Amino acid sequence: MKAIVYHYVRGHDARFSRPGGIRRLEPESFRRQLDHLQQRLRFPDASELIEILSGRRSPPEPSAVLTFDDGLRDHHQVVYPELRSRMLPAIFYVPTAPMVHGSILPVHAIHHLLGAVEADTVLQDAMRWIDAHRDALLADHRDEYLYRHRGAVPQPAAALKRLINGRRFLRAEARRALTTALLARHLPDLDPATIYMSRENIQEMSAHGMIMGAHSMWHDSLCELDREEQREEILGSLAAMEGLGGPSVRTFAFPYGGFESFDGRAVELLLEAGVDWCFSLDPTEVTAEQLSAPRSRQFLPRFDCRHFPHGAEVGSAP
Ligand SMILES: [Zn+2]
Question: What DSSP string runs through 69-120?
Answer without folding.
Answer: ES-BHHIIIIIHHHHHHHT---EEEE-SHHHHH-PPPHHHHHHHHHHHS-HH
